[in-house]
């Protein structure tokens, strides 16, 4: 894919090697928010979104996981009903991000095979997901509706405990104590079993450490942290510590490093918090050294708060590729970071669902 003149002007100079490699890879961003309730046109290059389909095309991005994000509210019948309705409406909005307009084609892709077919055809792959198990309320049957709308993962919690599990960040304003369930509830364990049967990944970003460690044992499919960073490098409760990283290695899971300054770098004095592409790749380096190349990937959390110097929007992903080359990673390793590892988990989830179906 070729960058437009305006997109080229917004980017630092990159090497021809980085540009060629980036354009040849399957590049997937595993966590992108959508505007809500304002629903601007994803086929138009806007100034209000860090990710829209033209920016993805200009930046050589192959695929993006667009999430129906549901903020945590009261764990009540009405709260659950409202969350369920909003999630289904948001997934419908994500499903409208397909077709051919303004010189580009996008497809909603509920399987890895469809994602790869989209890339082969020069089309953008839109992958739906759900952020916060609160969206299913106390009814795991909702998960089948989410999957029918293409959703590939569900983040167990957001900030605040829900009926499924404890979160890394509790919400006293919602009546939270530091712990509610001691990790997963019985409903949370049931929900994970449903996700395994449906071909959906269990996402442990935002989850309490107890929740995350239990999920690695309960799920028949390796779990993913779709947008998290390394706690040893930045001591934030949303990040994964060494014990959690080791649990990912033992079970085949993946952490998708994310472009959230607060998760990447400790605050320097009283100034504004900032981070850059080098800080981001420091977290990839750490995971590689601790648990291996096959357990780490890339996410932005764009339009949900993510953005760092050098990776401000979907046109600038090549700067990560440049930094990874600079650190000495080869093509196969960079391909693994940019989507290969995440797609391995998606394939594992599909295989588990198929295996379940054949037993019924």
From TrEMBL:
Pfam family, one: Peptidase_M19
GO molecular function, one term: metallodipeptidase activity
Coiled coil (residue ranges): none
One of the GO BP terms on file: proteolysis
CDD domains attached to this UniProt entry: rDP_like
Xref: InterPro entries: Metal_Hydrolase, Pept_M19
Superkingdom of the source species: Bacteria
PROSITE patterns: RENAL_DIPEPTIDASE_2 (PS51365)
Protein name as it appears in the record: Dipeptidase
């Amino acid at each position: 894919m070729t960058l437009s003149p305006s997109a080229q002007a917004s980017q630092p100079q990159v090497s021809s090697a980085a540009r060629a490699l980036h354009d040849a890879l399957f590049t997937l961003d595993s966590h992108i928010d959508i505007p809500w309730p304002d629903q601007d046109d994803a086929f138009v290059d806007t100034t209000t979104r860090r990710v829209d389909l033209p920016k993805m095309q200009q930046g050589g991005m192959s695929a993006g996981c667009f999430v129906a994000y549901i903020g945590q509210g009261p764990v009540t019948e009405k709260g659950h009903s409202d969350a369920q309705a909003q999630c289904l409406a948001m997934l419908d909005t994500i499903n409208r991000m397909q077709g051919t307009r303004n010189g580009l084609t996008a497809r909603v892709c509920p399987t890895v095979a469809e994602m790869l077919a989209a890339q082969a055809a020069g089309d953008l792959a839109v992958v739906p997901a759900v952020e916060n198990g609160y969206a299913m309320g106390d009814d795991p049957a909702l998960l089948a509706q989410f999957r029918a709308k293409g959703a590939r993962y569900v983040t167990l919690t957001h900030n605040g405990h829900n009926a499924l599990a404890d979160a890394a960040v509790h919400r006293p304003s919602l009546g939270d104590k530091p712990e509610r369930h001691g990790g997963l509830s019985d409903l949370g364990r049931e929900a994970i079993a449903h996700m395994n049967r449906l071909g959906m990944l269990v996402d442990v970003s935002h989850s309490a450490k107890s929740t995350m460690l239990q999920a690695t044992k309960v799920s028949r499919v390796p779990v993913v942290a779709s947008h998290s960073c390394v706690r040893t490098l930045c001591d934030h409760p949303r990040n994964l510590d060494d014990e959690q990283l080791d649990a990912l290695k033992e079970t085949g899971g993946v952490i998708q490093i994310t472009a959230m300054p607060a998760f990447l770098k400790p605050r320097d004095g009283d100034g504004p918090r900032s981070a850059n592409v080098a800080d981001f790749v420091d977290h990839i380096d750490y995971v590689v050294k601790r648990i291996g190349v096959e357990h780490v990937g890339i996410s932005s959390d764009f339009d949900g708060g993510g953005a760092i110097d050098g990776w401000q929007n979907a046109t600038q992903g090549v700067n990560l590729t440049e930094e990874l080359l600079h650190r000495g990673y080869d093509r196969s390793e960079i391909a693994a970071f940019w989507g290969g590892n995440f797609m391995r988990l998606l394939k594992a989830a599909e295989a588990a669902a198929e295996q379940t179906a054949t037993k019924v």
